[in-house]
Design brief:
This protein has two domains: 279 residues, FAD/NAD(P)-binding domain; 86 residues, D-Amino Acid Oxidase, subunit A, domain 2 (D-Amino Acid Oxidase, Chain A, domain 2). Helices cover 36% and strands 28% of the residues. It is built from 13 helices and 21 strands. The strands form four sheets. Strands 7-6-15-16-17-14-18-21 form an eight-stranded mixed sheet. A six-stranded mixed sheet has the order 9-3-2-13-20-19, covered by helices on one side. Strand 19 and strand 20 form a beta hairpin. The N and C termini lie far apart (80 Å). Bound molecules: adenosine-5-diphosphoribose and P-hydroxybenzoic acid. P-hydroxybenzoic acid binds next to loops.
C-alpha cells in the first residue's frame, strides 16, 4: 500500500474538481485529484457552453482564462421564441451590464487540465475502487487503485467532485442525507454539427410541437436540441429527420436560412432536478453534480458547480491561512441557498418552455415544493428586482392595448 498525504483530496477531475484544485493551489493549499477515467475520456463528454460572469471571474482568478477570452464570445442577450414570435431578453441592459460567455465546457475542462499539468499538480487518472474513509474523524483518508497499485491518501478534507454517479454523496450515511428529485416527462435530443450557428444569440423556442434550443460552440460549430419523449431513442432520428423537426419548432425566418449538415454527435439526455442535503458531512464536502442536478433549460449545471467551488475554496483558504475553523461548518447552508435558487429557475424555465402533454407540471414531493417556495419567497420578497415584480403586479399591470 502506497501511503501519501495532501491537505485536500479531490475526487473527480471534471470542471468542479479541476477548478477547485487550481484555485486552492494558487493560494498555496496543496491538493491531489483522483479521477476514475482518462483525461481523454473526460474531454470526450459533450456538455453545455454558457458561463455566468462569476465563472468567468473565477477562471481569471485561477489564471486559466486566456483561451476563453480569445475564442469565447460574450452574449449580451438571449432570445425566447413562443410559437414563432421572437422576444429578445436584453441581458446587459436589464441587469445593469451583466452578460454571459459562450465557451464550451469541454474547452473549460481542457484549459483547466492543461493548467494543472503545467503547475505540476498531482492527479491520478484511471483510478478505481475509490473509497472515502473516516470522514467523521480528524484524519479522513481515501483509498484507490492506480496502475495496479493500492493507495491510501491521508488528508484534512475530501472534496467530492465526482458527479451524480460518484462515490462521495453515497459516503454520507443514508439516514443523514435527504435527496430531492423531480424527473421530467421528456428528454433532450441533442445534435452537434460543424455548421455556422443559425442566430448570433441562443434561441429557446416553445412551439406546439415541443421545445427546441439553438445554441453554439463557435462561429463554425452549432449545438441544437429538441424535446423528445422519454421513450424515444437516437436510432429513430436520422440527421434529416432531426433538421426537419428542428426547423418546424424554430421561428420561420431562422428555419429558412439555417445551414444544416452531418451530425458529429447525437444523443438523448434525460432531464431531472436533484438536490442532496446537506452538502457536507464531517470532513467531506460535495460540489457540483455530486450534490445537485438541474435540467439544462437554465444553463446552470456548470455555473452552480462553479459557485460551490468558489464557496468552498474561500472557506478552505481562510481556514488554512487565517485559522478560520468556524467557517468550515457554513459551507452547506451557504451553497444550498444559491443551489435552490438555480434549481428553481431551471425548473421554472423548463415549465415555461416544454410541452408536458397531460403530465402535471409541478409533480414533486411536498418537501421539494417547500424548498422551491422558500426560494421564491427569498427572491420575490427579498430582492429589489423581485419586489419590483410584486409591486408592478400588485398595483396592476397595464390594461390590454386595443389598436
Ligand atoms: N472516483 C473518481 N472519480 C470519479 C468517480 C469515482 N468513484 N465517479 C465519478 N468520477 C469522476 C467522473 O469520471 C467525472 O470526470 O468525477 C467527474 C465528475 O465530473 P462531472 O460529472 O462533469 O461533474 P462536475 O465536475 O460537478 O461538473 C458539473 O458537468 O456533467 C456536467 O451538466 C454538468 O455542467 C455540469 C458539470
Ligand atoms: C448548450 O450550448 O449545450 C446549451 C446552452 C444553453 C442551455 C443548454 C445547453 O440552456
Amino acid at each position: 500500500m502506497n501511503t501519501i498525504r495532501t491537505p485536500v483530496a479531490i475526487i473527480g477531475a471534471g470542471p468542479a474538481g479541476l477548478l477547485l484544485g487550481q484555485l486552492l493551489a494558487k493560494q498555496g493549499v496543496e491538493n491531489i485529484i483522483v479521477e476514475r477515467v482518462s483525461g481523454d475520456y473526460v474531454l470526450g463528454r459533450i456538455r453545455a457552453g454558457i458561463l455566468e460572469q462569476g465563472l468567468v471571474k473565477l477562471l481569471q482568478e485561477a489564471g486559466v482564462s486566456d483561451r476563453m477570452f480569445a475564442e469565447g464570445e460574450y452574449h449580451r442577450g438571449v432570445e425566447i421564441a413562443i410559437d414563432g414570435k421572437r422576444v429578445h431578453i436584453d441581458l446587459e441592459n436589464l441587469t445593469g451590464g451583466d452578460q454571459v460567455m459562450c465557451y464550451g465546457q469541454t474547452e473549460v475542462t481542457r484549459d483547466l487540465m492543461e493548467a494543472r499539468a503545467a503547475a505540476g499538480l498531482t492527479s491520478y487518472y484511471e483510478s478505481s475502487d475509490t473509497q472515502i474513509h473516516d470522514i467523521e474523524s480528524d484524519a479522513p483518508y481515501v483509498t484507490f487503485s492506480h496502475d495496479g497499485e493500492q493507495y491510501r491518501l491521508d488528508c484534512d478534507f475530501v472534496a467530492g467532485c465526482d458527479g451524480f454517479h460518484g462515490v462521495s454523496r453515497k459516503t454520507i450515511p443514508e439516514a443523514k442525507r435527504t435527496e430531492f428529485e423531480r424527473v421530467y416527462p421528456f428528454g433532450w435530443l441533442g445534435v452537434l454539427s460543424d455548421t455556422p450557428p443559425c442566430n448570433d444569440e441562443l434561441i429557446y423556442a416553445k412551439s406546439e410541437r415541443g421545445f427546441a434550443l439553438a445554441s453554439m460552440r463557435s462561429k463554425t460549430r452549432s449545438r441544437y436540441y429538441i424535446q423528445v419523449p422519454l421513450t424515444d431513442s437516437v436510432e429513430n432520428w436520422s440527421d434529416d429527420a432531426f433538421w426537419e423537426e428542428l426547423k418546424k419548432r424554430l421561428p420561420a425566418d431562422v428555419a429558412e436560412t439555417m445551414i444544416t449538415g452531418p451530425s458529429i454527435e447525437k444523443s438523448i439526455a434525460p432531464l431531472r432536478s436533484f438536490v442532496c442535503e446537506p452538502m457536507q458531512y464531517g470532513k467531506l464536502y460535495l460540489l457540483g453534480d455530486a450534490a445537485h442536478i438541474v435540467p439544462p433549460t437554465g444553463a446552470k449545471g456548470l455555473n452552480l458547480a462553479a459557485s460551490d467551488v468558489e464557496t468552498l475554496y474561500k472557506i478552505l483558504t481562510k481556514f488554512y491561512k487565517e485559522g478560520r475553523a468556524d467557517l468550515l461548518r457554513e459551507y452547506s447552508e451557504k451553497a444550498l441557498k444559491r443551489v435552490w435558487a438555480g434549481e428553481r429557475f431551471s425548473w421554472w424555465m423548463s415549465n415555461m418552455l416544454h410541452d408536458y402533454g397531460d403530465e402535471q407540471i409541478t409533480a414533486m414531493s411536498a418537501e421539494m415544493q417547500d424548498r422551491f417556495m422558500a426560494s421564491e419567497r427569498d427572491y420575490y420578497f427579498g430582492t429589489e428586482e423581485g419586489k419590483t415584480v410584486v409591486a408592478k403586479q400588485y398595483v396592476g399591470l397595464p390594461y390590454p392595448t386595443v389598436e
